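Quick one from the shared queue. A colleague (R.T.) flagged Sulfhydryl oxidase as missing a structural entry in our internal table.

Convert sequence to structure tokens.
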Amino acid sequence: MSELGNSTIRAELGRASWRLLHTMASRYPKRPTEDEREALRSFIYLFARLYPCGQCARHFQVILANNPPEVSSRNAVSQWACRVHNVVNKRLDKPLFDCSQVQKQWKCGCADADDEEDDDVQAAA
Ligand code: FAD
């Protein structure tokens, strides 16, 4: 993957990508099937491989090697995503996020939405 030298675009891409990842985690089934676990695991490894900022992708692949995706439940993947985001935050000298607040922050990716806590992905299908 080529480098992404423009730091403004890199930051915008990062914010959008974290939003997607954390929102996917917050909407992931509480009791995923084996097929759903495998789908998310594959998505995360492909995301790390194809992420369109070469340096970020390389670093994220190392982070994944040390922190394999935890896909056994909504809570597990939400906490995992928070942890790996914090690894990136630390590397970039950004404040660390309190992972006990992650479900609240990313409940559905839209801060003002109604409570959809029990609205699993399958229920919407
Ligand atoms: P972001 O870090 O984008 O976070 C967006 C929002 O998420 C924050 O405002 C906060 O509300 C919330 N948040 C913050 N931390 C957490 C957490 N731990 N858990 C849950 N929510 C949280 N940029 C580089 O310059 N070099 C890199 O090597 C690099 N690698 C990256 C790798 C990946 C996989 C991704 C997705 C992005 C990467 N970025 C990298 C971009 C970088 O992480 C930021 O997205 C970018 O710098 C913008 O930062 P920000 O301060 O606006 O907030």
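The CA atoms of residues 31 and 72 lie 7 Å apart.
The first helix runs from residue 7 to 27.
Added to the table.
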